[in-house]
Every structure is written in C-alpha cells, then in structure tokens.
# Entry
Amino acid sequence: MSDGYMRFAHSAVGKKICRGLGFPIPPHLQRANKGPQEVVKHILFSSVNQPNSAISNALADAALDLSVQDQQRYNGLIFDASSIASSTELKQLFQFFNQHLPLLQRNGRIVLIGLNPQSIDDTPQAIAQRSLLGFIKSLAKEVGRKGTTANLIYTEINCGNEVASPLRFFMSNRCTYVTGQVINVALPLASTVDWQQPLAGKTALVTGAARGIGADIAKVLARDGAKVIGLDIPQSQQLLNQVMNEINGDSLLVNVTDANAAELISAHIKQLGGGLDIIVHNAGITRDKTLARMKPQQWDLLIDINLTSIERINHSLLNQDLINDGGRIIGVSSISGIAGNPGQTNYATSKAGVIGMVESLAPKLAAKNITINAVAPGFIETEMTDAVPFMPRQLGRRLCSLSQGGLPVDVAETIAMFAAPNSQGITANIIRVCGQNIMGS
Ligand code: NAD
# Structure
C-alpha cells in the first residue's frame, strides 16, 4: 500500500529525474482531520450579476469565510455562474479564473455553481450551462498537479439552501480526492444545520466494515455522530470487533450472500429499535479474469455479493419500513462500472448495476423522503488494490489528475456528505472519488 514512486519523486534526485523525463510529481494532498466543521479559510466568492437570494442564503448557511479581499492569496474560489444565459457570456468564466487562479494556493478548492441544463427551457441558456461541465473538467485537469480540486454544483431555478452542504464539502479537505465532478442538487431542504455532528441520533449500517474502505466509512460516520452497525463475514469477526470497539459500534456477523442475510439484518435493526437512517452497501469483491477464462463461480459469487444481495437487503428493509423518513441509501460503485476494464466483466457489470439501482430507485424513494446515491471510487489504497500486479497498480495510481491513489477515508468523507441531513437535496448522484482518473472521465 505504500507508494514508492511518490517517495522517489519527492526526493532531491527523483525530482530532477522526473522533471527531466516529464514524469508527474504527485502533490502531497491535504486531508481533513477535524471533521465536517472544518472548511478552508480565505475564499473568494464572485458571481455573474448579483447572486440571487437563494445562493446568498446558501452561502450564509454554509458559514464560509468569504472575507478575503481581491488580490490576496486564496484557498478557495467560488464562482456563481448560474445566471450565464448565452455562450458569449461564458467569457466571464475566463475573466474570473484567468485573473484569480494565479493567487490560489496549493491544495486549493474551486467550486463553480450552475443551473442544471435539464431544468432549463431556454436553449441558449441550457447550452451555456451545459458548457460549464467541459470547463470544470478541463480546469480540474490543469490544477490537479498542485493538489487543487475543481468541482461543479448544478442546482435548479429557485434553488434553496440545499447548495450549502455540497458547497461546504467542496470547500473542505474532505474532498481532497474528488475533482472534476458535478453534483446535482434539486429538492428543497428543510432540515436544521449542524456542521459539527450532523449525524447525531442517526443509526447507520455499513456492510464490509471490518477493513479497507468499509472500516473508514464506519469511523467517519461515527465521528459525525452516528451509531454504527458494522457488518462483515463471520471470518472477519476479530477485525470487525476491533473497528467497532474503537467507535463504540455494533458488530453484526453476516455473510450478505446467505439466504437469511436480509432477515438477520432486519431482526438486528428491530432489536435495536428506532429503524435505520443510513445504509452503506460497501461489501464487495473482485474476481478478475478475462471472460473466456472466467469460471461460472467467479461470475456468480461476485454478482451475488456486489449486486444481488444489495437488492435483496434493500427490498427487505424497505418492505418492512425499516428505513426511516429522511433515510439514506448509499452504494459503492466503481469507475470500472462506468468505463469498463479488461478482466473485470463481472465486476464492471455489478458496479454498473449499482448505478442502475440508484437511477431507478431515486424517483421511487423520493416519495418516502429517502435519498439514494453512490460513490464510484477509482484507485484506492486498500488490500484489494494491493493485490493488483505491479504495473497495473502503478498505472492505476498515476493515471489521474492528482497522480496518486486515494485513501479509504476519501471515499468515506464523500459518503458522509451524502448521509448528512443537509444533503436532503442530493439524490440520484454518482460521485467519482478517483482524483479524476482518466478511465471514463
Ligand atoms: P476490501 O476487500 O479491503 O474489503 C471488503 C470488505 O467486504 C471485507 O471486510 C470483506 O470481508 C467484506 N465482504 C466481502 N464479502 C462479503 C460478504 N459476502 N458478506 C459480508 N461482507 C463481505 O475491499 P475495499 O477495497 O475496501 O472495497 C470496498 C468496496 O469499494 C467494494 O465494494 C469495492 O468493490 C469498492 N471499490 C474499491 C476500490 C479500491 O480501489 N479499493 C475501487 C472501486 C470500488
């Protein structure tokens, strides 16, 4: 799991060689250590025309430090482009960023706010707003070498303060490995704002919580105030108990492929009482083989763990009304499920299915006030990726705008953002936590 190239590229000799050969020098990324209350300081906000009252309210709710003056050094740039109505007005993007980018510090945070083109009738305006996506993706690729992230929030006309939650996330070091992404916010928000312990009083179930990404999801949700039930296979009992002891969580030893898994989970939730507020379907495996060489068991087991068991568990919990009003269902997809990958037909099928689940269930669950979203991690440093052979492992790390693998906590932070009550306006989103990996971007 240690990145030898990164250490080499930062040594005196390595730096010279990498520069000479034009190889990337991966930036040192800053990560949050205080949780959701931590956002970057010295942010410059600007807007095409006067910001509308909804954006102003969202900024106030997000409680960001916007006191910075023109021409100071910034840690964050926010540009509200939601009133750009034609392609000629896009020039304002150029003017703002051309002037202020040179003053943005390393590990800076950039957010562009736009209007979801699909919510716009007027064609020139829809075209201009759709253009923002190309702009932010290219900008993210340019600034990645400095550890800077650039993301887009699409809102709808008459938006409310639902922009505050993604805005704070993208203006913090919790999004350090999320860049070149767009997040769509739509529904009105009616929850209280608690940026310290947003998940206080909530119960969360995390599958595959004994190690890797799942262990970090459990820890981050607990840090944000949730009571966590960590689920894993009986063979992982010791590891799972260690994680749960650390966060005062509950261990649930269940293999999600067991015929009675959904029943055991439901029984556990009923026994605790109070229902479930958050479920994170993280448990997953790989069984890589080219299709012609793949054994039927390698297909069957993987699809069952990564996809079908999730459907069974959701179905059972929803049917019994065990997911509370305002609940959150969060899937863990993969960039493989977006772009495909040789040797991963089974895996990519399952992970694309997770995206299908989000897309299909989101409108149905909206009536129950439940949101459903997924993360699509890229190369994350875990035991799963440690097992990848040397060359693909090196390529997996390097082929992204940040030239390095992410950490499990990066995925966990994005999931915690989806889980927060103030993210009620975020549903049907797939956020790639991949440092803008070139696969499928
Ligand atoms: P990991 O192998 O380190 O951890 C997976 C956990 O799931 C383990 O604790 C394992 O015991 C548990 N698990 C496996 N089968 C189970 C079953 N049948 N029932 C209950 N628990 C089970 O993997 P990871 O790298 O932490 O990956 C976590 C998730 O993230 C997976 O869904 C994976 O596909 C996805 N993902 C990982 C990466 C990456 O780069 N690591 C990239 C994209 C997506």
Notes: The mean pLDDT is 93. The chain has three domains: 1-30, 32-184, 203-433. The chain is about 40% helix and 15% strand.
